[in-house]
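Submission sheet (multi-component)
Chains listed below:
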Amino acid sequence: MTDRPILNVWNAEHAYGTRKVLRGVDLQVRPGEIYALLGPNGAGKSTLIGAICGRFKLGAGEVALDGEDPFTTPNARARLGLVPQEIALYGHMTVRENLEVFGRLSGVRRRDLSSAVALALYLTRTADREHVPVRHLSGGYRRRVNIAAAILHGPRLLILDEPTVGVDVDAREALDTVIRNLRDTGVAVLIVTHDLEQAGALADRVGFLREGRKVLEGAPRALIEQAFGQEMEILVQMHIEPDMDGESILAGEGLERRKGNLWARLDQDGYNAAAQLDRRLRSLGLIPREIRVRAPSLQNLFSLVADWRRAA
Ligand SMILES: Nc1ncnc2c1ncn2[C@@H]1O[C@H](COP(=O)(O)OP(=O)(O)OP(=O)(O)O)[C@@H](O)[C@H]1O
Ligand SMILES: [Mg+2]
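Outcome: structure written.
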């Protein structure tokens, strides 16, 4: 990673009518860095991406892509590749044919096209499907071809909007590998995601946007350590769905429902507390199927940040 950011956003402000959506956002992303932009629905993430792509003029503040404003200098946009959330490929055409079309559209010269396509196929691990019509590809391959289409012109900043929507776990890992490979070639990667697990595993830095402001930023592990110190997360998977009494017992133990029949809480004294919890629950006739103790995740941090909003 070098120190000079390829993307600089200073004090970005934007309103739709009278509704302020960006309220002074700063953002820097450096070559060789993966930055994940997180935040609840309506936080302003897509609006910020729109500003970075030069789609509208900011109410205040500045965007610079390698020093140039993408709104006033459309050429600056050639330095970025945008992977849209919707798959934007031609289903009846093969992977290679799609990439040739997208290459021409993104201004790759005819004589450079074949090597650009070969490189994009290689970097996205899609070369083994180059002659397959896109409509026959799995969701994971389609996502990767979507990325291939966005990097043909050799952008220095790659922006991905919700890259894991509709992608299963195996395909997601393949996608993460592709994103890491691109980062390792020196591309700066900006991901907008609701997938906190992916962000925690992949991002060098994350930023939380909330109500148009960046409220937290840093390396995932460092942020988690700062927020939770020695606390561990205790996860309790119950055997059978608890009835109302069961639920109130679990709640009384400080456990909150995560998803399905999985309950969780944070505790300074992780393993001991988990053992005590197990004994107490069993004595009350609530039999856990599994109890796990693990370090807190970005998910915990995200809930904490969401709670600040409620407290404010
Ligand atoms: N074209 C528009 N006109 C008016 N309001 C808009 C427009 N686009 C977005 N908004 C509003 O601006 C706010 C921020 O929207 P934005 O799409 O940037 O949020 P987001 O963080 O990307 O959310 P999500 O996670 O749901 O994609 C929302 O309240 C949204 O309703
Ligand atoms: Mg959005």
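Remark: The domain at 7-225 is CATH 3.40.50.300 (Rossmann fold).
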